[in-house]
Amino acid sequence: MARSGFIYGVAKRLTTGPPIYYAWVALLTLVAGIGVVAYMKQLERGLVVTGMTSYVSWGLYIGNFTFMVGVAAAAVLLIIPAYLYDFGPIKDIVIVGEALAASVLVMCMLSVTADLGRPDRLWHLIPGLGILNLPSSLLGWDIVVLNGYLFLNVFIPGYLLYKAYHVKEPNMSLIIPFILLSIPWAVSIHTVTAFIYNGLVARPFWNASILAPRFLASAFCSGPALVIIIYQIVRKYTHFHVKDEALFKISEFIAVAMALNLFLLLAEFFKELYSDTHHLSPLKYLYVGLHGKNMFVTWIWTALVFNVIAFIIFLIPRTRKSLVTLNLGCVLIILGIWIEKGIGLIVPGFIPAPLGEVWEYLPTTIEALVTAGIWAIGLLIFTLLLKVIIPIETGEFTRESRASA
Amino acid sequence: MTKPKDHFADEETILSQRGPGSRDQRKRAEAADCALPSRRSFLAGATALFGMMAVGSCSWEEFAQNNFQRMTKEEIDRTVERLKREYKAKYGKEFVVGAQRPIEGTLFAYGLDIQRCIGCRKCVYACVQENNLSRNPQIQYIRVLRFRNGSMDLEQSTIYYDPEKVPEDGYYYMPVQCQHCANAPCTKVCPVRATWSEPDGIVVVDYNWCIGCRYCMAACPYMGRWFNWTDPYIPTNEVNPETHYLGNRPRMRNVVEKCTFCIQRVRNGRYPACVEVCPVGARKFGNLLDPDSEISWLIRNKRVFRLKEELNTQPKFYYFFAT
Predict the structure, then answer these.
(1) In which domain, by residue range, is B275 found?
(2) Is B85 inside a domain boundary?
(3) Which of B13, B15, B18 to mutate to test the interface with A (most CBs of A within 10 A)?
């Protein structure tokens, strides 16, 4: 009885809303649908419909995956100040960060699946039934940590919301260990993802110890930037209250993270440029072009300029604390890191190829549509989650309110 | 010596490696894949069950097939019989799909005389023929690099040379294929153990277990691995029916494949096709564990080197100077 009441309440909340909600959900469904059709095309004809070749054998899908792992990790790393320093304003909004992490994780998994040649053999990855090649395969480890992280990000908010719905105090001694566990776990998903590339001796561009630290630094920029924008949208359309103070605090973290990110980039530049070995080639390809091939140059300089401008915006307290410039900085950072830690990280790893050939890569329309579809599915999940979560969190949607209504 | 015209690997044919192939070819291949009516009716059920996941798979037996390393003798026999039926339906020939175990006391290694190689690429095409490599899109396991005298800089080398006659003055040649590393970076990364080193040192792929993630391709420092971006196409009259399960049997789309030292030949006491075809005898092959083998002799007595030895991949592919 109570359960069916909850389902009824959820269904009602998901299907009612202002016109802009309907328009937004319809748009996402449309883009997701186009993505599914594009993916069917890929299943029908094979990965030949992508721009990937045996030279550049990973592209937009894996690039997007890498970027999104960062977002998922950072959304939860905001827990650190909330719980360790008991910074109230952020604490209130942690649940939304966890919902974001869960949605983005779904996008990560969809991206890797879209990249797989044989999705019909996914069962080969299930330990017992198939073979998960642990401990030697980092991709195997990534599957473990991503699924564990997904569990944490469903379980923690799920428990807290269940209690809130029943208007009961959560048992903090039960849930705090999970919350604390999710902090190193967030670090681990990004570290393991970096190690996937980092461990390959064949690819000098990735085979540098700076890779994992840079991953984390850039994730601390793009993830919180996305969170800042999302909270502003959430507080505009719901009764959920997010203090400006929380947003400004997050923007301070971003300033530090971006400083670190740029410093590590400088360290990478110095090492490669000063030693001037053949390991410089991928970086050369990326920033100035190699053997006349320079498709990526404009993109990466755009990313660098965006990141530097955003850094300045976040560094100056006045611009950091004005919502207009803050939002500008967030958008610049998201785009900048998306280029830099997306295909800007993956593609140059393959250029030049191990025997010296330079083959470039450009995503095809199908790849772009599938990727857009994955984003739409993730945003759709996130939107629908928030539609239920936020009223519970604000106390508008509980057992009692439903009973009285 | 003069090279036949079709031996040229120019940019155009390489680009076509991911060309789609004609639609008719693909249609025919698909029809042959699903030739048995009973299997087709089962496919309908399987599709309903697994939804989109079954799209890439053709039959239930194929879908549920185990990793080769975990198969019992009976399972291997059954799978081999099924594959023979499938290949016969597709190519109209009786196939041999061998599953020979490694010969006791063998560890295969390869020698390539860099001084003698004339860059004719006969090995490249003998390999394509022997190993049922896709002709469209084109896949070639062996890449013959041409270096200008005085340098061994990979970035300055090219595989796109096209003279009337080889060898050319001022250049030397170095063919590169899978190096069958003892410390192979590719097998280490595979998330499902679809690729491994056999006891006789051959690095193989179970094409039916590979999930197509291409992590091994990113890990290989020698361009030793190739991916079928779409259904491989082999003309029916050119297909080689003498195959091995872990070697040259016809592959399916979206899986990785590689040189296996012609496992179907070497486990039956024959030389790899590239060794046999080399017109100048630059290619040597044999058993490292046999001190009297040619390969053991030349490693002892000649100056040898291995490609990118600093990566500690420990290739079993030795380049040497005969004089």
Answers:
(1) 1-33+65-323
(2) yes
(3) B18
Name every residue whose Cβ is closer than 8 Å to that of residue B137 and which is 6 or more positions away in sequence: A48, B16, B17, B18, B19, B20, B21, B228, B229, B230, B232, B233
- ipTM reported for the complex, 2 dp: 0.92
Name the architecture of domain A2-404. Up-down Bundle (1.20)
Nearest CB among B17, B194, B219 relative to A202 is that of B219
CB contact under 8 A, A356 and B55: no
Cβ distance B273 to B262 under 8 Å? Answer: yes
CATH code assigned at B88: 3.30.70.20
User: Residue A57 and residue B217: Cβ atoms within 8 Å?
Assistant: yes
User: The tokens of B131 are what?
Assistant: 């190993």
pTM score: 0.89
Q: Domain for residue B137, yes or no?
A: yes
What is the residue-level pLDDT of chain A in tens, covering all 405 positions?
A: 456 788 888 898 898 889 999 999 999 999 999 999 999 999 999 999 999 999 999 999 999 999 999 999 887 777 776 666 666 666 666 788 888 999 999 999 999 999 999 999 999 999 989 999 999 999 999 999 999 999 999 998 888 888 888 888 888 888 888 888 988 999 999 999 999 999 999 999 999 999 999 999 998 899 899 989 998 998 888 888 878 888 888 889 899 999 999 999 999 999 999 999 989 999 999 999 998 899 999 999 999 999 999 999 999 999 999 999 999 999 999 999 999 999 899 999 999 999 999 999 999 999 999 999 999 999 999 999 999 988 888 888 888 776 555
DSSP-based three-state secondary structure for A312: helix
**Among B143, B155, B192, beta carbon nearest to A131:** B192
Question: Do the beta carbons of residue B286 and residue B272 sit within 8 Å?
Answer: no
Establish if A133 touches chain B: CB-CB under 8 angstroms.
yes
Total of domains in chain B: 1
Could you tell me if A152 and A141 are in contact, meaning their C-beta atoms sit under 8 angstroms apart? Answer: no
Q: Is residue B38 part of a domain?
A: no
Does residue B314 belong to the interface with chain A, where contact is any CB pair within 8 Å?
no
CB A119, CB A125: distance < 8 Å? no
In a domain, B199, yes or no: yes
- DSSP per-residue letters across B141-159: S-EEEEEETT---GGG-BS
Q: How far is A268 from chain B (nearest CA, A)?
A: 21
- For chain A, give every domain's residue range: 2-404
Question: What Cα–Cα distance (Å) separates residue B110 from each residue in B56, B202, B272, B286?
Answer: 37, 11, 10, 7
